[in-house]
Amino acid sequence: MSVRRLRPAWSGTRGIGVSELDGWAERRRIAEQARGERAWSLWGPYLAERQWGTVREDYSRDGNAWRSLTHEEARSRAYRWGEDGLAGICDERGQMCLSLALWNGRDHILKERLFGLTNEEGNHGEDVKEVYHYLDATPSHAYLKFLYRYPQAAYPYDELVREGLRRGRDQPEYEIEDTGAFAEDRFFDVTVEYAKEEIDDIHAVITATNRGPEAADLRLVPQLWFRNIWSWREGPPESRPRMAVQPDGSIACEHPRLGRYRLSYDGEPEVLFCENDTNLRLHGYQPDAPGPFKDGLHAAIVGGDESAVRRDRGTKLGLHYAFRLEPGETRRVNLRLSAGSRPRPVDHEGAILLRRIAEADAFYDALQDGIADADSRAIFRQAAAGLIWSKQLYCYDVRLWLKGDPLQPAPPRERDGGRNVHWRHFAGSDVLSMPDKWEYPWFAAWDLAFHCLPLALLDPDFAKKQLLLLTREWYMHPNGQLPAYEWEFGDANPPVHAWATYRVFEIDRDRRGGRGDLAFLEGVFHKLLINFTWWVNRKDADGRNVFQGGFLGLDNVGVFDRSRPPPGFGRIHQADGTAWMAMYSLNMMRIALELALHNDVYESTASKFFEHFLLIAEAMTDMGGEGFGLWDEEDEFYYDEVDIPGGGMLPLRVRSVVGLVPLFAVEVIEPSVLQRLPDFARRLNWLLENRPHLTCLVSRWDEGGVGDRKLLSLLRGHRMKALLRRMLDEAEFLSDHGVRSLSKAHLERPYSLNGFGDAFTVRYDPADSTSNMFGGNSNWRGPVWMPVNYLVVEALRRFHSYYGDDFLVEYPTGSGTFLTLNAIADALTDRLISLFAKGEDGKRPAFGDRPPIASAPGADDALLFHEFFDGDTGRGLGASHQTGWTALILNLLHQKARRTEVETGETAA
Questions:
Q1: Residue 2 to residue 331: CA distance in whole angstroms
Q2: Distances (CA, A) of 30 to 202, 383, 431
């Protein structure tokens, strides 16, 4: 193959000017998909980055998914419920997959998938030990770009495991950069780009550059394979997909459902086939099993075993390119996967690739209108790329998983009383937005709700379908509960689905104009009525409108596991669980009011949720008429309270995000809404007159604010200012990069609870948690979390819409500077954006003291969007590619741009 000198992997479009293109090309594709005219979503980045170590692949007795199918076994055991790969794509049913494998001549295995430590091996839980970036993507997947950095030395698999096991929780994670694997820039930059010519005609371009000082060998092995659908139940021979080399050298692929495809490629690679079957010699106690097996490519390329592959046909293909790259040299491989029976030529000149890049530029230029500085635009675009790359096909049929497959050994009987046994109705086979495709390659209900806000900016139809999907009968439990996550569907997460639904509705309405998608809003609302009832019936044990959510997604924020109180404790009355339900009530009221503007039957439903909100507000102040509530008058903060049998109520005085959640339960009603909905207004007036003890608990309902608006909030003015005083105190919650999840005051003054058999203590941990309460991923005792901060910013803006510019609060606390609530929201937004932005020193706080591998021009612009951030420094922590809810930075940047336009008198395009 000839050597081509290429544009750097970091550069954008320079071959075609945006002005020469239809700047609406990507939006047109999104619209065609939404209208059902063209299935641009047929192919996408849906391939998991880790299928091993997941619950759905676990058929063990003890339910230890990490040990049931390991990284070491993944190359030789066929997966039951999905596939994984490096920089890969697949069709929306996961029937055929395309990805990349690599070998540097030194590793003991072929690099087919990303490596990382299991939850047991990592000193802070599971952790991917690779360097890779999602550089670009468009919602239709017409263009995708992925960067992987591959060491030229042997990959330090064993060293990473040993050191992860050795280190304690008080030490940072041991990363691959710490091993010296990238010393002297001895690595390859490998970029994979996909460009669709049509919905089922995909160009793939793989470029590899030697960044090191000496010549180095590299094997590039593009892989195409069929998901194994034949090893689980009987089927006719013709139901087995097949691929075979043709006389012209192309690869013909035929699948009973997907149909016929052809793969074309350039150069003269070694064409190798095997079968996507478990190696029965290793795992089936069948030493004479014929093969070839799933690990055939590894055995042939790394082990030199020619008998492990075939040259003509199979269900898994590897195109083996062997290169020796000089320092700075780049090699390129072109592929084309297209539907039909005839081969189509690869795009040697890259015309389609350049056009799709230019269309991506045009799409983002329009979306980023008003975002002035280049750095913020780069943050926006890479966050969008990570969000799009985090789509994944999720397949899991619980009933079938528990029962087992006809052609496989029966699952252990212990599983009948194990994980997810009460969710037999669950049968997912859908593309979902994942928190992180390696660390959390499974959907999480409350994560997904947050994902949908930035998704709505990019592709509103996809965002709406995600929210609808979780309420469908094959996801939502018949009793109304939403599934939490596959490790335990029955856990309770904060009920934010209604909040996300209305926010997505608003974003979509802003784009489309008119009344908005009322059918979507109404469809979700009806299902959430069932979910709301589940919360009331299952999580308000005493019927006092005080809720016990248990886990609630905040991991170890409490002094003990709130789902499993220690012996001697009674029921826990949660300030956050109760406040989440107050927020849920207001969210449902808001949706009902929106629907009532077009169908007056919903007015009484809106009144119902208004009254439920009032009852929760009453309970938080005076539980069951017993004279105590969740607000602590002495500390002026909200705390959980626990029943001590025979000893009354004990407040758990941990100043954490638990006590800030009541801020989020806020709604402002415009006077025009009350004018248009007279029945709702009459019901509210009746409550004012006949239930004054309830309405006096709700802030300013009887007093008109700016524009005669009405305010619904758990916080009257004094309590709100008291909470804000703590939240905006840099010695407590306020950090340089957002609001911490635990007050820094607990660094010097830990909260301890003694006298109950064990000593329980909460101490401020700004970074990875030193507690193993929820395994390695217990990290709510100090760090900054994007979703909570987003809700804080939103709540402040809603309060400002009522109070206006005359209501001032000291910011930061003790500074002597007083700002409006809107100005404080702006300031917090800037602090959150600063996590990713270059400071005056040219550094990005999220990188911490570990600068990016700076060999290529612009390398420091390859960003990561972490799960959470150090409460003192802003360093990114946890899952390194959790662009899901951290992609809320898109909404913050977008809102900031729009506010700037309003303030400067400009109008958005």
A1: 8
A2: 17, 19, 16
Low-confidence ranges of the chain (pLDDT < 50): 1-20, 906-909
From CA 766, how far away is CA 758, in angstroms rounded? 25
Q: Quick one: tokens of 325?
A: 């790259």
Q: What number of other Cβ atoms are within 10 A of residue 502's Cβ?
A: 18
The vertex-826 CA angle with 824 and 831, nearest 5°, equals 95
- Cα dihedral across residues 68, 878, 662, 670: positive or negative: negative
Residue 652 vs residues 409, 568, 605, 641, 762: alpha-carbon distances, Å? 50, 15, 36, 6, 11
**What is the rounded average pLDDT for all residues in the chain?**
91
* Pairwise CA distance, residues 751 & 730, whole Å: 19
Q: Could you read off the pLDDT of 645-666 as tens digits, one per residue? A: 777 788 889 999 999 999 999 9
Do 275 and 284 touch, CB atoms closer than 8 A? no
Determine the angle formed by the axes of helices 518-539 and 497-512, rounding to 10 degrees. 170
How far is 82 from 78, CA to CA, in rounded Å?
A: 9
**pLDDT on residue 774:** 60
- The CA–CA distances, whole Å, from 636 to 350, 720, 888 equal 64, 10, 30
Helix axes 821-833, 786-803, angle to 10 degrees: 160
The pLDDT value recorded for residue 708 is 87
pLDDT computed for residue 761 by the predictor: 87
What's the rounded Cα separation, in Å, for the pair 177 and 192? 22
pLDDT at residue number 734: 98
Q: What is the pLDDT of residue 800?
A: 96
| Token couple for 509 | 């309405």
586 is written with which tokens? 């207001």
Residue 133 amino acid letter: H
